[in-house]
Amino acid sequence: MTNLGVMLLSGDGCTKDAAKAIEYFQRAAAKKYPRATYYIGVAYLEGEGVAVNQTVAAHCFYEAAMDNYPRAVYAYGLCLHRGIGMQRNLPAAAKAFRTAAAAGIVSAVHEYALMLKNGETVDAEFEAKELLQQAAEAGYTPSMIALGKMYTDPKEKMRNDDAAFMLFSKAAKTGDAEACFELSKLFRSGHGCQKNEEKARALLKKAAGDGCTPAMIAMGKHAMAETNGEASMKAAAYWYQKAADEDDENGIRLLADLNRQGMKMINKKARKLILVLAVLVGIIAAGFFIETTIIYIVCLMICGDTFRYHDGRYTSGYF
What we know:
Elements: H1 2-10, H2 18-29, H3 34-46, H4 54-66, H5 70-82, H6 90-102, H7 106-117, H8 125-137, H9 141-152, H10 161-172, H11 177-189, H12 197-209, H13 213-226, H14 229-245, H15 249-303, E1 307-310, E2 313-316
Antiparallel strand pairs: 1-2
């Protein structure tokens, strides 16, 4: 019955019917099948066949977790950790993640490792690395990246650029944008690998194009550093704008700074234009004065003091 509900909920092998799936889950849950209770929670969390209700979802995860269904234990841990449908409780979340991790839920290993790393539970950095290593070896890309970052952190006592390069390379093969960005930094610096500016640039551009906002910021900064003038500013503005569109604070700030810089450039050009115009007007005025003076002198030489300037023209005193 639960399996049929899962098929109806996902539309796998049949026409999707979330409302019908809920009916099957409820009938199975009434018979104390924790997997069915878990899927009821998923439905309420995502609004599939029912209105979104995080409180009901969290309660369903709790009920299924109490019956030792591993995926429900993990989901319950997420609710506790992030305050979804219930008050945050970090110690209880850590316990749930540990339990789910022991049952083979790789994402729970990752979440618990991050709690350890971020100091949200006991300070056990070494344990965090071990758990991330387990999840990374199981092929979990976020753990590969998290562990790689730990190995490249300048503050790390156990820094290992070679291991980081291997982890980022493996994660980048999955197409992960953040992994491509981290790998590009290693190729640019030559840490853990042979320095290769071409590969670094290609990976950075791919990461930025795939939505990694730190890569977008880096692309903008490289544009400003490698070229000059308006071409540089336009290229940088393009990437800063894309980062700003993702609500990235650095992107918003850098775009604002660039706009101010652009206004200064426009004002500078305007001042230069005004100066050039003033010089041209001065040259024209000076030319007219010189021309008038020369004509006057020549006329004096020819006609003597009888030549006069009257009513906007030169006239002879004989007329």
